[in-house]
Amino acid sequence: MARIAFIGLGNMGGGMAANLAQKGHDVRAFDLSAEALARAEQGGCLPAASAIDALEGAEAVITMLPAGTQVESVYSDAVFAAAPLSAILIDCSTIDVATAKRVAEAAQAKGFAVVDAPVSGGIAAANAGTLTFMVGGSADAFDRARPFLADMGKAVIHAGTNGSGQAAKIVNNMLLGVTMVGTCEAFLLAQKLGLDAQKFFDISSVSSGQSWSMTSYAPLPGVGPDTPADHDYQGGFATALMLKDLRLAMEAAQGAGAETPMGARAAELYERFAAAGQGRVDFSGIIRLLGGK
Ligand code: NAD
Known about the structure:
Layout: E1 3-7, H1 13-22, E2 26-30, H2 34-42, E3 46-47, H3 51-55, E4 60-63, H4 68-82, E5 88-91, H5 97-109, E6 113-116, E7 119-120, H6 123-128, E8 131-136, H7 139-150, E9 153-160, H8 164-192, H9 197-204, H10 212-215, H11 239-256, H12 261-278, H13 286-289
Parallel strand pairs: 1-2, 1-4, 2-3, 4-5, 5-6, 8-9
Antiparallel strand pairs: 7-8
The structure holds nicotinamide-adenine-dinucleotide.
Nicotinamide-adenine-dinucleotide binds near residues 10, 66, 123 and 241.
């Protein structure tokens, strides 16, 4: 069992840190929020007075922070100053690819092994320890990070070099945003053409229009498996988080000179939905923006 510094104990990090503690690790936890810190203590972690304090003697450093700015500042102000050089650095936050690569380069220049390891799965998966991790880094750094990630998830996949985990995450979520908007449109058009929604689901979910958005996350209540649509679009994956990932994808596409017209359109629609005060609503609720009831 290892000593782990865990920084960022919010909706996701709180459950992840608790799972590591439950697996027997010595988890030194830090968050700027006293409330988050208290929850981590209840989950079996040892609360630290500062990030520097949490980092002392750490064998692994895990960060789960809102965005690239926080990751960059925690790394430059605390991790580089106080983490032992022997520690494996694992950033699980979803951040922009450019910052992920910059942080990794800075860490490697100082002699650290580092990976980006963003997650698929929401708060429920973080609490249950069933996240999927997509990991960017060298084969050696991946091997060192894997056992810690395995203690918090059901799958740990090596995506490629540093930054590849973030790339996989935002490209996957861009595709998810696009297929969700398309699935919503398809259901609404089907209704207007007089097709029964359940019949359309039965056909499309085993036909070529099939996608995860259709079969596992149908955006209409009473159709397909139980989804947030059956709970007034509460729970699930918040529109604000989908928008965050789409913005990251658009930023990355621009930087890489990639044409992503469908991703851009999905980002625009989620932008409008969030601006209408629906940021906390599940992302499948976008069907309402498109004319659904
Ligand atoms: P959150 O806002 O609930 O938690 C972030 C935590 O970081 C907060 O508790 C905040 O106080 C803390 N923090 C911020 N700056 C800090 C600093 N300098 N030092 C210490 N602590 C600091 O966010 P979340 O929902 O837990 O998401 C975390 C990351 O995971 C994000 O990058 C998000 O995009 C990604 N993610 C979230 C979900 C989800 O469903 N919530 C799913 C997949 C990925």
